């Protein structure tokens, strides 16, 4: 089972890591668009690396 959790508390869990990632992107775009717009490429890259690590350990 793969799980990702947003800093706001939104959590998504599924067997398929791509569904988890897609749901998290949907959430980020819908609920945090202003934050995403203000992030630099480097900030977004770091955020993605952190989420990838979450998926690897299944947290």
User: What percent of residues are in strands?
Assistant: 5-15%
Order of helices and strands, N to C?
EEHHH
Strand order, sheet with most strands: 1-2
Helix content: 55-70%
Overview of this protein structure:
The chain has 59 residues and is an alpha+beta fold. The chain contains three helices and two strands. It has helices at residues 17-31, 33-38, 41-57; strands at 2-5, 11-14. A two-stranded antiparallel ribbon has the order 1-2. The N and C termini lie close together (9 Å).
Features:
59 residues; two-stranded antiparallel sheet; 2 strands
Summarize the SSE layout with pairings:
Layout: E1 2-5, E2 11-14, H1 17-31, H2 33-38, H3 41-57
Antiparallel strand pairs: 1-2
What is this entry, summarized?
The chain is of the alpha+beta class. The chain is 64% helix and 14% strand. The protein is built from three helices and two strands.
């Amino acid at each position: 089972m793969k799980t990702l959790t947003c800093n706001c508390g939104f959590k998504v869990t599924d067997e398929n890591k791509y569904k988890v990632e897609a749901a998290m992107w949907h959430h980020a775009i819908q609920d945090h668009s202003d934050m995403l717009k203000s992030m630099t490429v480097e900030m977004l890259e770091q955020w993605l690396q952190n989420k990838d690590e979450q998926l690897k350990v299944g947290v």
